[in-house]
Amino acid sequence: MRKQAIVLTAVLWAAMASVRPLPAHAQEDLPTIAVLDFNSFMMGQSGGAVGLGKAITAMLVTEFSGREGIRVIERQALNAMLREQDLVLSGRVNESSAIEIGKLLGAQYVLLGQVTSIVDNLRMDIRAVDVETSETIAVLKKSDNTSELLQVVVALADEFGEALNLVPPSDRPAIESIPVPATIAFSRAVDFEDRGEVERAIEFYELALELHPSHRDAQLGLERLRGEA
């Protein structure tokens, strides 16, 4: 029992260290959010299926990390805690478990939900839950073409920010369409990274960038893995 407590303490310290840093004067009283992997299903034109939930989680974490007024927990720290708690990366964490995960990580809010993409038709249903009260503070629903995934992610982040009365970013780069094959490659890269298959993850991050050279999250993933190599 004592050994488990020591392991959990170490994981929580790692999680806290992996919250996106902000200047010291801005650290006080900022809400911390954890974005959990979404239940997902994606069917391409060829009939092949691929999970999309991890990719969208990664994109939301990146989007939130560039915004003032909140802190976001890195996926790597979140995944480490899930493994330690035997919740493994199934993408099927229910609301009760999500709240417990949020408490363990010191998050005030958790985001969970589901994503469906069939050919080029995307639908996202996400809930933002207050960890302390268990209340749903926002229900975020969007439908669009799958190629407009980044636009949908930014819009969802904006709506969540509004629910917390946060000021939207005043200066943001142009939001580009992402070809569906690039989204598929990025999704596979994130999955390989979660499994610890670094070379395969790098291969698919590179493929995503080949298909869409300005893919922000694929570039960040590539830099992260090459920096660790």
Summarize the topology.
Blueprint: H1 2-17, E1 32-35, E2 39-43, E3 49-50, H2 53-65, E4 71-72, H3 75-84, H4 95-105, E5 109-118, E6 121-130, E7 136-145, H5 149-163, H6 180-195, H7 198-211, H8 216-228
Parallel strand pairs: 1-4, 1-5, 2-5
Antiparallel strand pairs: 2-3, 5-6, 6-7
Helix pairs in contact: 1-3, 2-5, 2-6, 6-7, 6-8, 7-8
| Helix share, percent | 40-55%
Named CATH topology of the largest domain:
Rossmann fold
Which radius of gyration do the C-alpha atoms yield? 17 Å
Mean pLDDT, all residues: 81
What CATH first level of the largest domain would be assigned?
Answer: Alpha Beta
Order of helices and strands: HEEEHEHHEEEHHHH
Provide the CATH architecture of the largest domain: 3-Layer(aba) Sandwich
Structural class: alpha/beta
Q: Can you tell me about this structure?
A:
This protein is α/β, with parallel strands linked by helices and 229 residues long. It folds into 2 domains: 166 residues, 3-Layer(aba) Sandwich (Rossmann fold); 52 residues. It is built from 8 helices and 7 strands, in the order αβββαβααβββαααα. Strands 1, 2, 3, 4, 5, 6 and 7 form a 7-stranded mixed sheet that branches. Helix 2 packs across helix 6, helix 6 packs antiparallel against helix 7 and helix 6 packs parallel to helix 8. The longest helix has 16 residues. The N terminus is likely disordered.
